[in-house]
Write a structure and sequence with these properties.
Elements (H helix, E strand, L loop, with lengths): L1 H26 L1 E5 L4 H15 L3 E5 L2 H9 L5 E4 L5 H6 L2 E16 L9 E2 L1 H9 L8 H4 L13 E5 L4 H13 L1 H6 L12 E3 L1 H11 L3 E6 H6 L3 E2 L1 E3 L5 E2 L3 H9 L13 E2 L9 E10 L3 H17 L1 H6 L7 H14 L3
Parallel strand pairs: 1-2, 1-3, 5-10, 6-7, 6-8
Antiparallel strand pairs: 3-13, 4-8, 4-9, 4-13, 10-11, 12-13
Length: about 350
């Protein structure tokens, strides 16, 4: 009798454990894409799991990979620093909204140089990445940095090797400010780079620049800070040399007009503000219209992050969305039946 009771209790317990495991698996979310967003999504996911018990698994594979995985319906959401045009979203039956803002920073490895010491303008930056400026003591660079003893050393350009929303932001900026770049290279999450070596992910670019003296590359602000990289000043649309800071990113964001009727499609490059950082951007979440249950889970996660995650975002060098934009996103979710 006692043995029989033990067997029944063991069976019941195993069923409860199995049911709990299935419920947990059902509650878990899977996302993939933007390396720019990886640090903040990981931090939010950890805090959300502690608060709700729901797990988010996120793969930092680049924006191009995130777009492809949500198009293939192999994840609950894709993450992309490149906003997709409304016509592409319609064709692939996707929804899109911004999650957080940041900026792309120009970083260099110049022995002995402190962050913010080197000045660049759009034409000079363009010429470097086109391969037209080959040495650091080129007069086009020294004329912007009078009194600085720049060495006659070849410039090693470092860029992303895979499809990347960071690349899309950077090349969109170059296409807007430099006619030669627009006609010769163009913009997108992957381009045919005229010169340089490729690193996979922001981590790869950061590592290459840190290991290669007299190199230059582009990474998200968060990676530049976390890796203590030497960033440059950059001349903005108002004609001022500005540093990448929360204040300059927020000034760029202040002029952004995200429209939910266009699925929030917007580039934030070369903003007109007096002290706006010129290579700013948002990172976006992509949802499949055919996955309403998954979409509700994803919306609950980001709604929680919008309410509880701003301080964490700032601690990791991201710019939280303005309250008014968060409300626009909630309205968009309601309209699309995911909130």
């Amino acid at each position: 009798m006692k043995t029989s009771l033990k067997m029944v209790l063991a069976a019941v317990l195993s069923i409860i454990v199995l049911a709990s495991g299935l419920a947990f698996a059902a509650a878990a979310m899977n996302g993939a894409g933007s390396t720019f967003a990886y640090p903040i999504y990981s931090a939010w996911a950890y805090a959300y799991n502690r608060s709700t018990g729901v797990q988010l698994n996120y793969q930092s594979i680049g924006s191009g990979g995130g777009q492809q995985q949500i198009i293939n319906r192999t994840v609950d959401f894709g993450a992309s620093d490149e906003p997709l045009k409304p016509e592409k979203l319609k064709r692939d039956r996707l929804l899109q909204f911004p999650a957080v803002m940041g900026g792309v920073v120009i970083v260099v490895n110049m022995p002995g140089m402190r962050p913010g010491a080197l000045k660049l303008d759009p034409n000079t930056l363009c010429a470097i990445f086109l391969g037209n400026i080959k040495f650091w003591d080129d007069t086009r660079i020294t004329s912007l940095n009078r009194g600085m003893n720049l060495p006659h050393r070849p410039i090693t350009v470092v860029h992303r090797s895979e499809g990347s929303g960071t690349t899309a932001i950077f090349t969109t900026y170059l296409s807007e400010v430099c006619r030669d770049w627009k006609t010769r290279v163009g913009s997108g999450n992957a381009v045919n780079w005229p010169v340089g070596i490729g690193g996979k992910g922001s981590e790869g670019v950061s590592n290459y620049v840190k290991r290669t003296s007299y190199s230059i590359g582009y990474v998200e602000f968060a990676y530049a800070l976390q890796n203590r990289m030497t960033y440059t000043l950059l001349k903005n649309a108002a004609g001022n040399f500005v540093a990448p800071t929360f204040a300059t990113f927020k000034e760029a964001a202040a002029t952004a007009n995200f429209d939910p009727r266009k699925d929030f499609y917007l580039w934030m490059v070369n903003a007109p503000g007096r002290n706006a950082w010129p290579i700013a951007g948002a990172t976006f979440i992509l949802l499949s219209k055919e996955q309403p249950a998954a979409n509700k889970k994803v919306a609950r996660f980001f709604d929680w992050a919008f309410k509880n995650g701003d301080r964490t975002a700032e601690n990791l060098a991201y710019v939280p969305l303005p309250a008014s934009l968060k409300e626009k996103i909630r309205g968009y979710w309601k309209k699309e039946g995911v909130y």
